[in-house]
Every structure is written in structure tokens, then in C-alpha cells.
Amino acid sequence: MINGIKPLERSLRWGMVGGGGTSQIGYIHRSAALRDGTFTLVAGAFDIDAARGRAFGERLGVAGDRCYSDYQTLFQEEAKRPDGIEAVSIATPNNTHYAICRAALEAGLHVVCEKPLCFTSEQADALVALSRKQNKIVGVTYGYSGHQMIQQARQMVANGDLGEIRIVNMQFSHGFHHRAVEQDSPSTRWRVDPKFVGPSYVLGDLATHPLFLAETMVPALKIRRLMCSRQSFVQSRAPLEDNAFVLMEYDNGAVGSMWTSAVNSGAMHSQKVRIVGEKASLEWWDEHPNQLRYEVQGQPAQILDRGMPYLADTALEEDRIGAGHPEGLFEAWSNLYRRFAVAMDASDRGDTDFLAQFWYPDVHAGAMGVRWVENCVRSADSGSAWVEFI
To answer: For the segment 86-107, what is each residue's pLDDT rounded down to a tens digit?
Structure first.
């Protein structure tokens, strides 16, 4: 259990690009990064409006001369300081992620980036290569993967408790955008604008979350080919989809499905992952994140609860409070930022053996999400044809 003792000997000097006062996601980044003392916020380019960004940064306790007008100035000026930032988080609209991430790596910084990491597989491959060349960590905030029961599922699959995996069923299908809410909400409007989000809406914004959860639970499965059908039920969003179905075939003969939607009227989140094996199944639902449903054929269904001693060590090590008490998404994000810091420290020390076996949503995870969306769009735009996963 996490007890407040720092996992590192010191805090990493940290900055932010974006995440200002009007950001939907900035606070959860700061809450997660600062919670365990692994990062200290010392600089930032918090807002496209420089004066507003400086005022916001100063309210956070950042010195005024370290609240910069843009990310280029942030990286340039911090590099001149002996106490300059060592890591940066990117919490900006999607179309800026690639350029900022690339500039941060070129400046010798570790990076935590919102997803999608970028828009194309070529860009993703370039970031993977640059991360390797610079020996810097890129963490991607697939925040739900920080929930401990995801690690429990991963361990049970690895133990063979389910037998050979046959079916992976995924969904993320809320109803909050069942009408054109973006007309009255600037924070939503950019999410349905191809200039800002690229070739997809719900496939990139929603579906990549359960996709990565499934990858975490069953890391050995590799997609062989897929077929995607996507719809724009709110016509003003076309060509971007607000609903999509994806069928997948894996290299071991297993099959997968994904339903992702922003027009599932009445639904809250409805993000679920179900892993079906030859002997048993597991199901996790983000609206009940402390529980994992375990169903063995011919036996009563079991509900495994977070924090209980029958769970795997990997599912217990990041508990922040005892069993029975609710933990949530802020804790999950905090767990990820803790892991990002540990990975950054190991990278700086050259501990490649540790990094080879240490799990966190890395640059490869971000690249995989980009490649999956790209293949889905290619399938849908080809009349929902089956396409080889490339």
C-alpha cells in the first residue's frame, strides 16, 4: 500500500504546457503529479493568452518569470537554468501534441502527454525513435489504467486462470453528446472539429481507453485485422463519427469487438472490458472501478474487491486506502504519475533492466492508439471493409 513515502530520493522539476484555468483536464494532471511529492511544479506555459496564463500560474505558486507565453519559450529559457524543468506535461488540444512532444524530447525533457499522442503512425514512429534516441520517457495518460483491478486482471490472465483467450469485448459509450452540445460549449466544440482532433472523434477520444485497458490485461494478443463502421448521428459532426463499431481478429484466433459512442442516450460512461477465456471470464466496469467480476463456467459468479488480501501483489501495491473505501480516477491518475516519475528516474540512471520490466503507459502505447484509430478510419472509409492491421 502507498503510505506517503516518496518512491524517489527527490522530486522531479516539472512544467506544464496548457492546463490553464479554462482547461477541463489541467487540475487532474496537477493533482496526480503533486500528490506523492514525485514532481514539483516550477514552470509552465499554461494558456494561449500569455497574461492570463501568467496570472493563473502565479495563483498556483509558480514564479511569474517562469510563466511563459508559449512552449518554445518555456523549453528555451528553462534549458538555460541550472534548476530548469526535467519533465513536462502536455494538456493542450490534440492537434498540438505531436509538435510539443517532439520539441520537448529535442530539449532533453521527459514527457507526459494527453492522448492521442499524435495523428499519424508516421508521427508516432518518429516519437518512438526520438524518445529512444534521447533516452527520455514518454508517458501517455490512459488514466483508467491506473486502477488497481486492471493489474489484477492482467495477473489472472498471465496465471492462466481464464485459459486461452477467445473473446475481448470493449465499450465506451456515454450519452452526454446525444445532441449538438458543442454549439454551446467551447470546451466540447474543438473535440468535434477535424482541425483539432484529426480523423476521428469517439474512436480517438473514447475508444482508445478501453482498447489500452484490454492491451494491459492481455498484452500477448496482437490485432491481425479489423473492420470498422462509423456514424455521425448528429449530422453537423460529419465527417467525424459520434458512434462506431469495430470488429477485430487477433493473431491467436481470438476475436474482439468495440462499441464506442457519445450518443448512447441516458448512459453515464458505460466503459467496460470483458475478457472471455476457454475456462472463465473477467469483466471490469469503470462506474464500479473497485470491483472485478470473475465468472468460472459452472460456478457462481465472484466479485473481487480492491484492497482484499486474496488479490495479487501487483493489485495491492498501489492502494491508497484500505478495502471497502472508494477510490477513484484521481487515485488512478496519481498512480500513473508515480509510475511516470519512477520510470523517468530509472531512465536518468540508465537502469535499462528495471525499465524493461516496469509497466506504465509508454510511448509505444500512445503509438498503438494512433495506429488503431488510423486503421479504423481506413476500414470505415472503405465501406467498412476488413483491413490488415498495419
So the answer is: 999 999 999 999 999 999 999 9
